[in-house]
Each structure stands twice: as C-alpha cells, then as structure tokens.
Amino acid sequence: MSKISKFFKGGGSAASKGRGGPSPQEALTRLRETEEMLSKKQEYLETRIERELAAARHHGTRNKRAALQALKRKKRYEKQLSQIDGTLSTIEFQREALENSHTNTEVLKNMGYAAQAMKKVHENMDLNKIDDLMQDITEQQDVAQEISDAISNRAAFGDEFDE
C-alpha cells in the first residue's frame, strides 16, 4: 500500500486503533513521512515548471499555440506548488506543536515523579520535632559562643600590675 493511500485510508497499526488514537511517536512519524512525500512532489513540480518554461521558450514565436499551452501547464503546476507549500507549512506547524506537547507531557510526568519522591523523603519528618531540634542547635551554639568568649577574654590579674 502506498504512503498516500495509507495516509488517506488511515492505514496504521492495530494497536494504535485499539487504544483510541496513535501515540505521539506514531503521529510524528506519519507527519514526517507526509512532509517527505510532499517535498518530493515539490521537487517534481519544480522540474516540470522548468521543463514547461523551456518548452514555451523553445516554441516562442514560431508556434504560439504550443507556447501558450506550455505556459498554461506551467501556471497550473505553480498553483499546485503553492498549495503544497501551504500544506507543508501547516504540517510543520502541527508537527512542532505535537513535539512540544509531547515534551510538556514528559516534563509533567517527571515533575510528578519528583514530587512523589519528595513526599516520600518528608513523610518521616515532623515539623514539631524539627522545630525542637533547631531550638536545641541554637541553644548549643549560644553555649559554645559563651565558652569561646570566656576562654578568649584576658585574665583580670594581669591588669592590676603597675610597672
């Protein structure tokens, strides 16, 4: 089955149909395939346009009817090329939006996973115990500072001696 018929007839995997829709990877793959197919058609039309223009120049004034027919075909090909350009632009926009949505979904899943891990880490902690512990630490720091101040002060017996 050709890529075009798969695209329009919905030829996809049975697994994606059973789940209610394609996965983001499947959709991205199909969008890329469609972009590739349209790009090839663009190249084909561009060569056809060049051929028709060359034919119109070749016939020039000698055979006006053939030259006009070549220019009409060229114009028709240019219209098709313009339509393909618009379609490609739309597909690129949709692919980028799907990629961004998929990225955002993955980020959100990972943030949820991290939130669960933080919850597990904090489940054994009690705010009252933490507050009491912080008060004990502050008291011990104050005691240590008092001891340090007492040790670092000069002894008073050296100040009374007069030379």
From TrEMBL:
The keyword Cytoplasm applies. This is CHM4C protein. It is a peripheral membrane protein. Residues 1-26 are annotated as: Disordered. It comes from Chordeiles acutipennis (Lesser nighthawk). Its main location: cytoplasm. Belongs to the SNF7 family. GO terms for cellular component: cytoplasmic side of plasma membrane; cytosol; ESCRT III complex; late endosome membrane; multivesicular body. The lineage of its organism: Eukaryota, Metazoa, Chordata, Craniata, Vertebrata. GO terms for biological process: late endosome to vacuole transport via multivesicular body sorting pathway; protein transport; vesicle budding from membrane. It is found in: Cytoplasm, Cytosol; Late endosome membrane. Residues 9-21 have a biased composition (Gly residues). It holds the Pfam family Snf7. InterPro entries: Snf7_fam. Keywords: Coiled coil, Cytoplasm, Endosome, Membrane, Protein transport, Transport.
